[in-house]
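The instructor's notes for this session suggest beginning with a concrete chain rather than abstract definitions. Hand out the sequence below and ask the class to guess, before any prediction is shown, which regions might be ordered.
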Amino acid sequence: MTILFVFVSILVLILLITWLKLNPFLAFLISSILAGFLLGIPPEQIAGSIQKGIGGLLGDLVIVIVMGAMLGKLVAESGAAQRIADTLMSIFGVKNVTWAMMLTGLVVGIPLFYNVGFVLLIPLVFSVSYRYKLPAVYVGIPMLAALSVTHGFLPPHPSPAALVAQFGANMGLTLAYGLIVVIPTIIIAGPFFARFLKSIDAKPLSTFQAKPKEEKDLPGTFNSFFSALFPVFLLVGTTIIGLQMSPDNPLFPYFKFVGDPGMVMLISLLVATFTLGIKMNFKVPQLMDLYVVAAKDVAMILLIIAGAGALKQVLMDSGVSQTIADSLQGWDVHPLILAWSITAIIRVCVGSATVAGLTTAGIIAPMVSGGNVDPNLLVLAIGAGSLMFSHFNDAGFWLYKEYFNVSVKDTIKSWSLMETIVAIVGLGGVLILDVFI
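After discussion, reveal the predicted structure:
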């Protein structure tokens, strides 16, 4: 009955959005309340779960998304995005744009959390699409596939890193095996799959689009790349230094502070305000007006993501993920397939890749101690399952839909299907590796 109640809650959410045309934020709140009652959460605790879910998700994302939108707006209006797009196209050519986006997503995705990488790179996708009259989804999916796979498969991202520790796997081996699986996975889910998405009608946020400028009015190539990618440099630099530095070092707390994604975005915006704003003859009031417009454009995105966080928290508080995991534990299948299956089902029901992965870990852990499966491959199998079919209860689904401004149907045809391809191809790669290891 638990799984049935979850599906009823998600079905109501879908109907509210697609049939009644209700605002997704309101639909999420209604569905969250319904799920709370159906799954047996005491009525006096349902509102608390919703508030906790909204606050927990927005607490991590609001600074990153708002500051990222401001930075993206400045990168577009200053002409830096045009300069970056022209440089990339001169190197890769328009015919290979999907490969360029995939490579960019892979390089940026290894050190950065998915949401941070998304916010940082999405202006580049829209600039290339706008500049060269290419479909935005066709350009963006290869980059998003790379960002998603690195987030789900590879340490030092939170879920894979936690699984490595829990299974006693080797971080270096997991990363090496992961890269072997990741490369073909993102090629299939990225450039290859993107060829079938050219007809999808997307109208990206106008915040990240600007009229083409003349060559003389553009910032320099170094300034453009440096300012737009400064958050990447800062995050990677502080992470590397933090790993090498002893926690007893008096400078350690300061590096941890500067390395927080929210602080990185604030510092990066201030740097770009000078390098791409004041230095390019923008007045400070003019820049502040740009930032206000950018913040307004992403306000509804924040609310929709908050709604997804509310539903996720209600499902977590109800214990549904553990119930599903317990009911599937007795399946007589290959350990890697079992781990993938449990994770995939929890992911589809709950919407959180991290929750799905860590819940499965507690169930599968005895298999590792029994020596029946390579722990490094088990981390990758769970990582693949945790990306299975992102849909209405996943904040990533709405992040993609609202930024690209596509219909729910087209979001499922592109984003959700891409995530499913990633999960299935990833499992296939892990099983092939298992034959040789």
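Then share the key points. The mean pLDDT is 89. The longest helix spans residues 43-77.
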